[in-house]
């Protein structure tokens, strides 16, 4: 879970140092920042470019290549709604709509208070339990629209 909105320069420096400022560890460095802050702030990318002595374009192309990385702030809690076929036929679309209605966001958007980001995935291999909603890696199966409010309220 993110610890603050943005890493300080000192925090980025300590991550760079922990990898020996090795440009070959760029993905791991980005993963560490993403894991702590749920996104990659532009200032951090600049600092990584300088700290590893590699062009910003290289940092940026890696940061945009992997779907797991986000350049926009994301919520403290990441909601993934499975829209794979099995979940879809069991009403995943209605669950997605209900979550979006409760939070007033669309897929890939973040609530204004940075509490939730809502995303979609295609089949997470638990089709028998569909529709599946995953929040911060925790699976909730057989999700129904009338359970959405309680589920969301259980997160701080
Ligand atoms: S389709 Fe949702 S888990 Fe397989």
Descriptive tags:
156 residues; alpha+beta; 5-stranded mixed beta sheet; 7 helices; 44% helix; binds FE2/S2 (inorganic) cluster
Description:
By secondary structure, this protein is α+β, with helices and mostly antiparallel strands. It has helices at 9-18, 26-37, 42-52, 56-65, 85-89, 92-103, 145-153, and strands at residues 77-82, 109-110, 116-121, 133-135, 138-140. Helix 1 (9-18) crosses helix 3 (42-52), helix 3 packs across helix 4 (56-65) and helix 6 (92-103) crosses helix 7. The mean pLDDT is 93. The structure holds FE2/S2 (inorganic) cluster. The site of FE2/S2 (inorganic) cluster has 12 residues, from helix 5.
Strand content: 5-15%
Give the overall silhouette.
Answer: elongated
| Number of helical regions | 7
Bound molecules: FE2/S2 (inorganic) cluster
Radius of gyration: 18 Å
Biggest β-sheet strands, sense, barrel: 5 strands, mixed
Q: Structural class per helix/strand content?
A: alpha+beta
Give the helix level as a range of percent. Answer: 40-55%
For the biggest β-sheet, the strand order reads 2-3-1-4-5
What ranges have pLDDT less than 50 throughout 5 or more consecutive residues?
A: none
First-last Cα distance: 12 Å
Mean pLDDT: 93
What's the number of extended β-strand segments? 5
Helix/strand order:
HHHHEHHEEEEH
Question: Briefly, what is this?
Answer:
The chain is α+β, with helices and mostly antiparallel strands. Helices cover 44% and strands 13% of the residues.
């Amino acid at each position: 879970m993110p610890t603050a909105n943005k890493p300080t320069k000192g925090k980025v420096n300590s991550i760079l140092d922990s990898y020996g400022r090795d440009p070959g560890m760029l993905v791991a460095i980005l993963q560490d920042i993403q894991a702590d802050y749920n996104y990659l702030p532009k200032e951090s990318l600049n600092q990584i470019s300088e700290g590893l002595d590699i062009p910003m374009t290289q940092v940026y192309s890696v940061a945009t290549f992997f779907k797991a990385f986000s350049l926009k702030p994301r919520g403290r809690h990441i909601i993934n709604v499975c829209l794979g076929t099995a979940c879809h036929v069991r009403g995943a679309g209605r669950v997605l709509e209900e979550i979006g209605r409760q939070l007033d966001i669309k897929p890939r958007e973040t609530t204004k208070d940075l509490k939730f980001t809502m995303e979609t995935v295609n089949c997470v291999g638990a089709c028998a339990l569909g529709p599946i909603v995953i929040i911060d890696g925790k699976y909730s199966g057989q999700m129904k629209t009338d359970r959405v409010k309680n589920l969301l309220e259980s997160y701080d």
